[in-house]
Design goal:
Number of domains of chain A: 1
Shape of chain B: flat
Number of strands of chain A: 0
Number of domains of chain B: 1
CATH class of chain B: Mainly Alpha
Largest sheet of chain A: none
CATH class of chain A: Mainly Alpha
CATH topology of chain B: MetI-like fold
CATH architecture of chain A: Orthogonal Bundle
Helix content of chain A: over 70%
CATH topology of chain A: MetI-like fold
Distance between the termini of chain A: 62 Å
Oligomer: heterodimer
Order of helices and strands of chain B: HHHHHHHHH
Helix content of chain B: over 70%
Largest sheet of chain B: none
Structural class of chain A: mainly alpha
Chain lengths: 219, 219
């Protein structure tokens, strides 16, 4: 079977049907990963038994493939009678996997804040919660905008993993086309090109955002 | 089936996991070095060409690349085994990331290093070979180990193109008997057993290099 260019062009709209879900999953999983990752990192900075536990959890998340974590959640939860939509499992799975990496990013961001900031907050009588929310977090976010942005792009690039647990995103729609027409070469190639364009566009946007952030902080 | 029997069954796929990782490294290391160096030294249209090759491998989702190459190459008359396609795609994807650490490491070197080499009468190539590369490679080894872990985890994807790696074995066992909890916990554990020692090794190396660099600064 040789490559059919006109067929490839004809199926572009069908493959693009999954675009909405791809973007939705990316945005929600990015939020989820940032939230979870920040929680891990704050817990890792607490008292001893918790610190060692979190260190292990973060290492475990980072030492296992995202595909396997997704399989685990997708097949194990129903065994215990927890029936969740595949979309939800997928978003949670990506959030969980990337939270391990974002925890490390947050760690670097918090480490970069001078000790004087904590001492100043303490001497002003701020509670530890207020210190985290109003003193540490704003400065940390500025420090880590670049690596965090690149992990959000990574999350976008991980969304096609959800096709294996039957979430209808772009790779999923490409597979739908393939199984209807018995032609695999064109849909896969179209999906590849569309994902590449999408990832490059988002990476550009993230870069532009970073530059702006850098400008606003320079005095 | 006991948990131990399940784990033993999963490790029957270790041969393929290890083989794809090893072959992948054979693609990743030369690609990272060559394209990292090319990107650092080239200018104008040549640089744009080098960058676009790197971005192609780095910015596409690896799972989509894998499917696109696995299904599309035969349509162009190129017939490769699943293992050849799998290790090439995974390897070049990691190589794309690696090339960026090579370039960053070369850029981070003090200008004085290459200037001193040129002033001593070394050719530009010899400056690269004897002065810049040894320092750049030392600086990038911790990053490189992290990328090797990404490659090991990435090999879980070859189960999708019919190779019997650890993930594929787990899916086979899961079909033989209904025990998703045991099988997929076992699979998570199997990858953890393989990857965690590498993580620890990487941390040691990073620590050792950090120390030696401090010594150099003191000197």
């Amino acid at each position: 079977m040789s490559f059919d260019l006109s067929f490839a062009i004809r199926i572009i709209p069908q493959v693009l049907e999954g675009l909405g879900n791809t973007i939705l999953v990316t945005v929600l999983a990015s939020f989820g990963a940032a939230l979870l990752g920040f929680t891990w990192e704050i817990l890792r900075r607490s008292a001893k038994p918790m610190r060692y536990l979190m260190r292990f959890v973060i290492d475990f998340i980072r030492s296992t493939p995202v595909l396997v974590q997704l399989y685990f959640m997708f097949f194990v939860l129903p065994y215990y009678g927890i029936l969740l939509p595949a979309m939800f499992v997928g978003i949670f799975g990506l959030s969980f996997y990337y939270s391990g990496y974002l925890a490390e990013v947050f760690k670097a961001g918090i480490d970069a804040i001078p000790r004087g900031q904590y001492e100043a907050a303490q001497s002003l009588g701020l509670s530890s919660f207020d210190t985290i929310v109003f003193v540490i977090t704003p400065q940390m976010l500025r420090n880590i905008a670049a690596p965090m942005g690149s992990y959000f792009v990574s999350i976008l690039k991980a969304t096609p993993y959800l096709a294996v647990i039957a979430v209808p995103e772009m790779l999923g729609s490409a597979f739908d086309v393939a199984s209807e027409t018995y032609r695999y070469a064109e849909p896969m190639l179209v999906a590849g090109i569309l994902f590449l364009i999408l990832a490059l566009t988002v990476a550009q946007l993230v870069q532009r955002l970073e530059k702006r952030l850098m400008l606003s902080t320079r005095r | 089936m006991s948990s131990l029997a399940i784990l033993a069954g999963i490790f029957e796929g270790f041969r393929i996991t290890a083989l794809v990782t090893a072959l992948g490294l054979l693609y990743a290391i030369p690609f990272a070095l060559l394209f990292g160096i090319f990107q650092h030294f080239s200018k104008g249209p040549l640089r744009a060409l080098v960058t676009s090759v790197i971005e192609f491998w780095r910015s596409s989702p690896v799972i989509v690349l894998l499917y696109a190459f696995y299904y599309s190459l035969p349509a162009f008359g190129i017939y490769l085994s699943a293992i050849a396609v799998g290790s090439m795609v995974l390897g070049l994807n990691i190589g794309g990331y690696g090339s960026q650490s090579v370039r960053a490491a070369l850029q981070a070197l003090d200008r004085g290093q290459s200037e001193a080499g040129l002033a001593l009468g070394l050719s530009r190539f010899n400056v690269l070979r004897f002065i810049e590369l040894p320092q750049a490679i030392t600086a990038m080894i911790p990053t490189f180990i992290n990328q090797a872990i990404q490659l090991i985890k990435g090999t879980a994807l070859v189960s999708l193109i019919t190779l019997t790696d650890m993930t594929f074995r787990a899916k086979e066992i899961a079909q033989l008997e209904y025990n998703p909890v045991g099988v997929y916990s076992g699979l998570l554990l199997a990858y953890f057993i393989v990857c965690y020692p590498v993580t620890i090794f990487g941390r040691r190396v990073e620590f050792a290099f950090g120390k030696s660099r401090q010594k150099i600064n003191e000197f």
